[in-house]
């Protein structure tokens, strides 16, 4: 991957993705070989909206590479609450760190940040836009269980505002994958994502009912439908109920189906699914570590081409 | 065009925007930010017969020459338009609009949650795509409603 930043999944080619995932596999196989690979470097965690797992996952991945992390803290206690712009904030933090991980409530925030700094920026979620590092760990999970070609993937839930969905759908177009999108009409994929999918000639089908496709799926990627997307609470409960799965729902699915979820889940996947062989979401979350290690390793290496690589990475 | 067909008189100085798609003249004025309050002389011909377009609109604006960024945005709603700059009743410059690769600082993003709609010191930037424009920051696509988002 010869990228300076990771901002959207649309920037990633198949080669880019496979290079990171190969490296993630190597990291998972021999984490000790990567332990002090980036000692002396500093990663800034800039989270302008709440995050638990993404923040901790990047923090942990960095530390396992020997990287120190500095954390902006909560927005309420930072200079942002005094009205400082994002552009100024990242320009200042650039002087403190060798790379930035940014989460922000506005779409396009990571693009703007990357325009203002010369260190690598990783988009850890920009509003309802993109979340490409999540996509890399999603792809790693799919690849380790099914491979990444000749696949049928169903993506269900809030497809309109779900940033993990937008990134995953784009990235999957690099592979031989049939994509099925299952959602209520009001939460269909946004026009911009459909535009990108059609541009690549991807096979895309949209459905309102999971039953239409469940028998054909290798992977079912479930996302949460959020209450705040509905003006009426009764309408929310009615719609959300239709996109909830449990062990009974999966009776119709092939035995090898993987159920994935970016987490946190609320009640869209019933706990009884956890005990089935379909459940992959905790494995998926754990994959955040080797994948984000591989990603940070790659970006820092690109940012410093003279660095002594020291390790032969199995590609 | 013979005298008895002449609908609006020649202008001394300014811009004539010809071959605008029929019905788009008022959007052209919107792009130029002209609503009459500036005191400029403005003549509009709508649905005038045209060999090339069948029906076309013409806009004549006195004492105002278009900037490149205005012409760029104009091309998005009036791709066939020709721009004539007039000085002392003579056409001193005649050009067809060409679709730019991108437009910067002229359109506002319709996505209220786009970073360009916050207090950030950033100009909007849209890539010109097949039948519209696309925000470089949030990827939102703007098509038929481009004229509603002009910010010049």
From TrEMBL, chain A:
Reaction catalyzed: carbamoyl phosphate + L-aspartate = N-carbamoyl-L-aspartate + phosphate + H(+)
Keywords (A to Z) from UniProt: Pyrimidine biosynthesis, Transferase
Pathway entry: Pyrimidine metabolism; UMP biosynthesis via de novo pathway; (S)-dihydroorotate from bicarbonate: step 2/3
Positions bound to L-aspartate: 82, 163, 224
InterPro entries given in the database record: Asp/Orn_carbamoyltranf_P-bd, Asp/Orn_carbamoylTrfase, Asp/Orn_carbamoylTrfase_sf, Asp_carbamoyltransf, Asp_carbamoyltransf_Asp/Orn-bd
Protein's GO biological process: 'de novo' pyrimidine nucleobase biosynthetic process; 'de novo' UMP biosynthetic process; amino acid metabolic process
Enzyme class, spelled out: transferase
Aspartate/ornithine carbamoyltransferase Asp/Orn-binding domain ranges (all copies): 150-298
Subunit structure: Heterooligomer of catalytic and regulatory chains.
Protein name: Aspartate carbamoyltransferase
Gene: pyrB
Automatic annotation (TrEMBL), chain B:
Binding locations of Zn(2+): 109, 114, 135, 138
Cofactor: binding details: Binds 1 zinc ion per subunit.
GO biological process: 'de novo' pyrimidine nucleobase biosynthetic process; pyrimidine nucleotide biosynthetic process
Molecular functions (GO terms): metal ion binding; transferase activity
Sequence ranges assigned to domain Aspartate carbamoyltransferase regulatory subunit C-terminal in this UniProt record: 103-145
Keywords: Metal-binding, Pyrimidine biosynthesis, Transferase, Zinc
One of the record's GO cellular component terms: aspartate carbamoyltransferase complex
Stored Gene3D superfamilies: Aspartate carbamoyltransferase regulatory subunit, C-terminal domain, Aspartate carbamoyltransferase regulatory subunit, N-terminal domain
Domain Aspartate carbamoyltransferase regulatory subunit N-terminal: 6-97
Cofactor: Zn(2+)
Subunit structure: Contains catalytic and regulatory chains.
Family (UniProt): Belongs to the PyrI family.
Role played: Involved in allosteric regulation of aspartate carbamoyltransferase.
PANTHER family reported in the protein's UniProt record: ASPARTATE CARBAMOYLTRANSFERASE REGULATORY CHAIN
NCBIfam families in alphabetical order: ATCase_reg
Protein name: Aspartate carbamoyltransferase regulatory chain
Native species: Halorubrum aidingense JCM 13560
Origin organism lineage: Archaea, Methanobacteriati, Methanobacteriota, Stenosarchaea group, Halobacteria
Gene designation: pyrI
